[in-house]
C-alpha cells in the first residue's frame, strides 16, 4: 500500500513536497461509515482511502523542510494481492462498552471493482469466496463461515460441526466480519481459473 504525504507549508519558501512510502499489508481493516442500516463496501474503501489532514501532535517531519509540518495523507494500493482479506471494523473504539456495529455492508459476490483505489488506476476485480461471520458482542459471541466451493460454485455454511449448502442470497448479512476475495482470473492451486 502506498501512503502519500503532501507538505502544506505555506510560509516562504513554499514547500509542497510530496513523499510516498510503501507499507506491505496482509489484510485491510476498513472502517464502517454508518452505525446502522446498510452501506456499500465501496463506501468503506472510500473512508479508508480518504485524504486526511495531519496537524497538531500528528504532524510528521517533512523531509524537505526538515521540520514538523501540517500535511495531508492519503492511501492507495500499489499492487493488488491474489488473495485479498478485508476485515470490517465492527468493534469500534468510539462505541461505548465495545458495542458492535451491526450495519449490513453490501459487498459484490463477483466483479468487486477496486480500480479507483489503485495508485496507477490498474483495472482490478475480485470475486468473493469466503466470509467469516460474528454474531454476539465483544464479550460473548459465535463465529460461522460461508465458503464457495471452487468447482461447483455452491455456497456452504460452516457452523461448528454442521456443514450444509446455503442460498447464495444469504451470504451478505450484518454478521459479516472478514471477507475473503480472490483476484478475478487468477489461477487456483488446483489449476482451475476462477472468474
Mind explaining what this structure looks like?
With 195 residues, the chain is mainly beta. It contains 1 helix and 14 strands; from the N terminus they run E-E-E-E-H-E-E-E-E-E-E-E-E-E-E. It is 5% helix and 38% strand. A hairpin with a 4-residue loop joins strand 10 (125-136) and strand 11. Mean pLDDT is 83; it is low at 189-195. One of its GO terms (biological process) is protein deubiquitination. Its EC number is 3.4.19.12. Pfam families: UCH. Keywords: Hydrolase.
CATH H-tier superfamily? Cysteine proteinases
Radius of gyration: 20 Å
Name of the CATH class: Alpha Beta
> Can you give the mean pLDDT?
83
Number of domain units: 1
Structural class: mainly beta
The helix-strand sequence is: EEEEHEEEEEEEEEE
Helix content: under 10%
User: Tell me, what's the shape?
Assistant: globular
CATH topology: Cathepsin B, Chain A
Largest sheet: 8 strands, mixed
What's the total number of strands? Answer: 14
Straight-line distance between termini: 25 Å
**In the CATH hierarchy, what is the architecture at level 2?**
Alpha-Beta Complex
Q: How large is the share of residues in beta strands?
A: 35-45%
**Number of helix segments?**
1
Q: What are the segments in which pLDDT stays under 50 over at least 5 consecutive residues?
A: 189-195
Amino acid at each position: 500500500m502506498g501512503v502519500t504525504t503532501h507538505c502544506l507549508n505555506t510560509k516562504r519558501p513554499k514547500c509542497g513536497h510530496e513523499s510516498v512510502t510503501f507499507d506491505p499489508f496482509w489484510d485491510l481493516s476498513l472502517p464502517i461509515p454508518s452505525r446502522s442500516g446498510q452501506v456499500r463496501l465501496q463506501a468503506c474503501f472510500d473512508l479508508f482511502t480518504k485524504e486526511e489532514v495531519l496537524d497538531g501532535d500528528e504532524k510528521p517531519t517533512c523531509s524537505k523542510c526538515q521540520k514538523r509540518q501540517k500535511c495531508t495523507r492519503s492511501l492507495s494500493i500499489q499492487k493488488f494481492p491474489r488473495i485479498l482479506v478485508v476485515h470490517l471494523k465492527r468493534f469500534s473504539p468510539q462505541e461505548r462498552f465495545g458495542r458492535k456495529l451491526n450495519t449490513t455492508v453490501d459487498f459484490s459476490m463477483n466483479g468487486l471493482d477496486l480500480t479507483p483505489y489503485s495508485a496507477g488506476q490498474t483495472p482490478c476485480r475480485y470475486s468473493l469466496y469466503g466470509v467469516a461471520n460474528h454474531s454476539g458482542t465483544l464479550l460473548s459471541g459465535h463465529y460461522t463461515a460461508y465458503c464457495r466451493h471452487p468447482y461447483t460454485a455452491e455456497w456452504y455454511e460452516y457452523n461448528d460441526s454442521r456443514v450444509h449448502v446455503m442460498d447464495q442470497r444469504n451470504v451478505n448479512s450484518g454478521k459479516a466480519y472478514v471477507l475473503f476475495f480472490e483476484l478475478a482470473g487468477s489461477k487456483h492451486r488446483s489449476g482451475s481459473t476462477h472468474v
